[in-house]
Amino acid sequence: MTPPPPARTAPAPTTLVNGEPYPLDGALPVADLVARLVPAFAADRTARGIAVAVDDAVVPRSLWETTAVLPGARVEVVGAVQGG
Q1: Is the sign of the CA dihedral 41, 46, 48, 54 positive or negative?
Q2: Given this model, what pLDDT does residue 9 score?
Q3: CA angle at residue 34 from 53 to 26, to 5 degrees?
Q4: Rounded to whole angstroms, what are the CA distances from 40 to 7, 28, 34, 76, 78?
Q5: Contacts of residue 41, Cβ cutoff 8 Å, sequence gap at least 6
Q6: Is the overall model pTM greater than 0.90, yes or no?
Q7: Mind listing the domains of the chain with CATH numbers?
Q8: CB-based contacts of 38, cutoff 8 Å, min separation 6
Q9: What are 28's strand-pairing partners?
Q10: What pLDDT is attached to residue 77?
């Protein structure tokens, strides 16, 4: 008798951040996601030169604490770079 195949495990929920898969178990405020990705923001929660879009909609900085990123969302986090 052949043993049953191993149970398949569902893949961990993810979102796309800057085009790359990012594990995300549940809703996460934009501010918390930025804090995970940008150490300078995590230190003092100021967002100079950072912009965020979720599913192609720019999220104003004033809404970062109350706007949730959900599994499956597409997020772009960009930072301004000075130079010339």
Answers
A1: positive
A2: 62
A3: 85
A4: 42, 19, 10, 17, 14
A5: 34, 35, 47, 50
A6: no
A7: 14-79 (3.10.20.30)
A8: 50, 77, 79
A9: 69
A10: 95
What are the residues whose beta carbons fall under 8 Å from the beta carbon of 67, sequence distance 6 or more? 29, 30, 54, 59
Please give the structure tokens belonging to residue 77: 């986090």
pLDDT at 12: 65
Could you list the mean pLDDT of each consecutive 10-residue stretch along the chain, which spans 84 residues?
Answer: 69 86 94 90 81 97 96 94 73
For the record, the structure tokens of 25 come out as 């178990």
Nearest by Cα to 82 from 60, 49, 35, 42: 49
> Cα(first)–Cα(last) distance of the chain, in Å?
70
Instruction: Spell out the residues 6+ positions from residue 72 whose beta carbon is closer than 8 angstroms to its own.
Output: 13, 14, 15
Query: Tens digit of pLDDT for each residue in 44-64?
Result: 887 788 999 999 999 999 999
Q: Look up residue 29 and give its two tokens.
A: 């405020």
